[in-house]
Amino acid sequence: MDVDVKAKLSGIVGKANFSDDPAQLEAYSIDQSYYPAGMPNYIVKPANSEEVSEVIKFCSENSIPVVPCSSKIHFFGATIPKEGGVLMDLTRMDKIFEIDADNRRVRFETGVTWEKLTTELEKEGFRVIMPLAAMAERSVLTDFMEREEPTNQVYDYGEPLEAMEVVWPTGEIFRMGSASVNGYPDSMSKGGNPSGPGLDFYRFFQCAQGTMGVVTWTNLKIESIPKIDKVLFAPLDDLNYGIDFLYRIMPRRIGQEVLLLNNVDLAALLTENWDEDYEKLCATLPPWTLVLVVSGLLRRPEEKIAYEMKFLDHVIKHEFPSLRLGENLPGFPGVRKKMLPILRKPWPANKTYWKNGIKGASQSLLFHARPMNAEQYISVVENIAAQYGIQIHDIGVYIQPLEHNRACRIEITFFYDPENEAEKSVVRALYNDAAKILLSEGAIFTRPYGDLAPIVYDKAASYAAALKRLKKTFDPNNIMNPGNLCF
User: Fold this and answer.
1) Phi and psi (nearest 5°) for 9?
2) What count of Cα atoms within 13 Å lies in the side-chain half-sphere of residue 203?
3) Residue 186 — pLDDT band, cuts 50, 70, 90?
4) 396 CB contacts (<8 Å, ≥6 apart)?
5) Helix, strand, or coil here: 127?
6) Would you say residue 147 has pLDDT above 70?
7) Which residues lie closer than 8 Å to 250 by C-beta, 6 or more apart?
């Protein structure tokens, strides 16, 4: 059977884009997490949706697992094969089909990286509303399929993905939303609606880790590059004071990028020389820093900034007199010039990833909560970490306000030496204990990958049962990334 599989797969994608070489297989057996390695049997690199479809049809007919992999960068074990099979590397599918300035959208394939997309959009005067320090070599589509939160919450970018194309686990090619209408991509809608006409399918694929099919291309919302930016900082000793301030300003749509960082995460983002800068920055930065960017876009930019600054000055003077909001972070000259590229550009591929510079590797615990409860949840994690001998100054915390501060995403990062198995085991145990307690206290985990899957789905039995029924319907032979989600 091995000979038949090899001949068939290499016939679909071409001999140069097929491999069963042990060294290459091993390279795909791990990601940037502490999850155990899992070796695929074959690697294929399709060039288009049709080749993806042919590979999946063959594998479905022969009950061979398929694990989609969209880029070189993955963090939560979602692309590590659990049952061998075919690792489908989608990096060849990296075309940007069109930049639609009138409808402020861009259509591109799943292998397009942050570096490629941001470079091409910048030429046309556009940008993507980005997650914090997205990695240059990571797939843009994957970040948004995994519900990464953008740092800019002013616009309606909580759902940045629009219509898309998917290959179902049976091999059928299917278009969702307004990309399904006759005449697309030249139709009136231009694929700008993810939900219609007809049934809303696109949420099946969010955070599904390739278990429901392979998304081959999508439309993504884009925005004009601002004419003027004013980067503001507020040092905070009291996290709740800063959150109350955000409750006051964000419903008024003041600011573009808005986020809160503790001293560990901010030091990691700003560090240029790890041997000299990090420890000093970590020790001298305030416990928390609010970062707020006020921008003027294409029309009357000076007036827009003047209006927002006037509002901010009024709120601070009359309601938050202790808040020191300014263009410089006291004691840290030049931070303003460093921060805007961090927020607007991908993290450079030739630079140590900011989370990995501290010890070499990291694991982030992500969950949603009400902003007023953020300090409580952070304290819970700090208390659990202390039991494992990990102190607050060893933990990174990033809070991303959502929906004009109606909610927030809290990202707590634990750092470890990837060569130290004992450290790795401690972080994994801490991660699991913290997740269980946070879940019991009301935290919401929207990305239950890896160790989180049994913790979350055991608490949501009816939801897990519904997912299994959907999986059986769309993937009757259970070939798509088996072992992830709750099955």
Assistant:
1) -65, -45
2) 7
3) confident
4) 262, 264, 265, 268, 355, 362, 364, 411, 412, 413, 415
5) strand
6) yes
7) 153, 258, 401, 404, 405
Q: For the segment 275-287, what is each residue's pLDDT rounded down to a tens digit? A: 889 999 999 999 9
What is the edge-to-edge ordering of all strands in the sheet holding 258-262?
A: 228-236, 288-296, 258-262, 395-402, 407-416, 361-369
Between β-strands 407-416 and 361-369, what pairing exists: parallel, antiparallel or unpaired? antiparallel
Question: Is the pLDDT reported for residue 161 higher than 90?
Answer: no
Residue 198 has pLDDT above 80, yes or no: no
Q: Quick one: DSSP state of residue 164?
A: E
Contacts for 463 with CB less than 8 Å, ≥ 6 apart: 457
**Three-state secondary-structure class, residue 174:** strand
Token output for 16 = 């140069």
Instruction: End-to-end CA distance of the chain: give it in Å, rounded.
Output: 27
Cα–Cα distance between 15 and 6 in angstroms, integer? 9
What is the C-alpha to C-alpha distance for residues 79 and 135, in angstroms, rounded to an integer?
Answer: 17
How do strand 258-262 and strand 214-221 relate by DSSP bridges? unpaired
Phi, psi torsion values for 150, nearest 5 degrees = -70, 155
In the structure encoding, which two tokens stand for residue 276, read together?
């000299």
Confidence (pLDDT) at 155: 66
d(CA 402, CA 129): 13
pLDDT at residue 269, rounded to an integer:
97
**Cβ-contact 336, 231 below 8 angstroms:** yes
DSSP codes joined into one string, 384-428: HHHHTT--GGGEEEEEEEEGGGTEEEEEEEEEE-TT-HHHHHHHH
Could you tell me the domains of the chain? 2-89 (3.30.43.10), 96-224 (3.30.465.10), 228-344 (3.40.462.10), 361-440 (3.30.70)
**Which contiguous run of DSSP H or E holds residue 247?**
helix 239-249
pLDDT tens-digit map of 431-479: 999 999 999 999 999 989 999 999 999 888 898 899 899 999 999 999 9
According to DSSP, residue 82 is labeled: S
Confidence of residue 1 (pLDDT cuts 50, 70, 90): very low
Hey, what amino acid is at 63?
S
